[in-house]
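User: Can you recover a sequence for this backbone? Please restate the input before giving your answer.

Assistant: Of course. Working from this structure:
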């Protein structure tokens, strides 16, 4: 339990008490367009954008707030895109959300979505006086005035405190967000009302030692009622099974489904079934989000997980530079790695080998496949990111457990050639 509390922190009790006392109250305000105006053109449609990938500062509630923006690689203002808001956990950051690919959804989306990661005050989402809902309102207004967004296709998700905030957005802005997916969430950021339906996909571990699964069930049930679904006690996996069970509720209002995924695990954002190579979360969440219609031409990548196998690595040496960022807690960590091709030739297919510190074991990862899970590890490109032009970079990462040494990997090599540290 102590291992997982770092993800939510001792502030949980205090926040919960404040909410119980009624101090986390959501207030008014709305984003620039409503869900009811399907495919409504935002002001950014048809104009040359000024916003770019990176960190942006915005005035909200009388203070400077920040958010991270990631655009599709083929962005054009001539068609509207889905918009996904990814919310970090307590003591996490918008950088962490970007590093894990917005909980893996960025790779699933291909070039069909714009991604936003706001930064919470005090690295959390207390949402005092509705300030964080207002922040999202202000970010959407700024982004949609510059970029072309499909206003019927706005989504939000987050882990832990971020899951709580995604729930608060569903409560406060049901006409703005088409669907939300709280992962290991609870009512920590407040809820103005659940009287209006929002498509809802809740995910929670049966052995969650930080936010008990009963808290996630409570969030789920509020939208089971709002969406008019038939109440039930969906099946959940047995402890020790190493599996997950996803249930789609019946009887829901057309267009407002509710899904519930319970997994045999603790308080983690990207659980992995026993003997699986990667988490199932991003695939199921993206399938849930993308069922509501697509603004993506049929010639673009499908919303299902990429099926094409990794490319074969280019033989011969490849010059490279590597940077890595570690975010550690008691017995766990995430590591994000960026590799830059510093050579003069394009790399078509890559493997990056590195040594994990003793005691570290990879439990899941993103943007690459990893083998083995400890010792000298090889990360191999996925089917969608195998090409590295000269000067180009690729980012990938993993979640791991550790026994005391939470240091970064060492001894990087790209396609067999040693890399320099960045």
């Amino acid at each position: 339990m102590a291992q997982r509390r770092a993800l939510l922190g001792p502030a949980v009790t205090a926040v919960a008490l404040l909410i119980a006392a009624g101090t986390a109250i959501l207030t008014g305000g709305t984003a620039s367009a409503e869900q009811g105006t399907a495919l409504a053109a935002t002001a950014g449609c048809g104009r040359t954008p000024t916003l770019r990938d990176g960190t942006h500062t915005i005035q909200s509630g009388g203070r400077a707030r920040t958010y991270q923006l990631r655009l599709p690689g083929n962005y054009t203002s001539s068609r509207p895109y889905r918009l996904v808001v990814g919310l970090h956990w307590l003591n996490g950051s918008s950088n962490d959300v970007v590093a894990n690919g917005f909980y893996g959804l960025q790779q699933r989306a291909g070039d069909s979505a714009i991604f936003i990661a706001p930064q919470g005050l005090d690295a959390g989402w207390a949402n005092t006086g509705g300030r964080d809902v207002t922040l999202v309102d202000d970010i959407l207004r700024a982004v949609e005035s510059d970029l072309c967004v499909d206003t019927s296709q706005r989504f939000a998700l987050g882990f832990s405190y971020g899951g709580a905030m995604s729930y608060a957005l569903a409560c406060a802005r049901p006409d703005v967000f088409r669907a939300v997916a709280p992962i290991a969430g609870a009512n920590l950021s407040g809820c103005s009302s659940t009287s209006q339906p929002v498509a809802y996909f809740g995910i929670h571990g049966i052995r969650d030692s930080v936010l008990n699964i009963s808290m996630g069930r409570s969030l789920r049930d509020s939208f089971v009622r709002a969406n008019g679904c038939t109440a039930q006690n969906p099946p959940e996996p047995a402890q020790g099974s190493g599996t997950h069970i996803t249930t789609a509720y019946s009887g829901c209002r057309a267009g407002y489904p509710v899904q519930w995924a319970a997994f045999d695990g603790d308080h983690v954002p990207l659980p992995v079934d026993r003997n699986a190579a990667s988490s199932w979360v991003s695939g199921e969440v993206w399938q849930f989000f993308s069922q509501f219609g697509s603004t993506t031409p049929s010639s673009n990548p499908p919303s299902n997980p990429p099926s094409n196998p990794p490319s074969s690595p280019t033989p011969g040496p490849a010059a490279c530079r590597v940077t890595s960022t570690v975010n550690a807690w008691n017995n766990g960590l995430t590591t994000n790695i960026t590799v830059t091709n510093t050579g003069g030739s394009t790399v078509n297919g890559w493997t990056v080998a590195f040594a994990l510190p003793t005691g570290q074991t990879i439990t899941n990862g993103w943007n690459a496949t990893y083998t083995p899970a400890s010792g000298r590890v090889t990360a191999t490109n996925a089917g969608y990111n195998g090409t590295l032009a000269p000067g180009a970079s690729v980012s990938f990462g993993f979640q791991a457990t550790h026994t005391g040494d939470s240091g970064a990997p060492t001894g990087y090599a790209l396609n067999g050639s040693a890399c320099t540290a960045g």
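That completes the design. DSSP finds eight helices and 21 strands in the chain.
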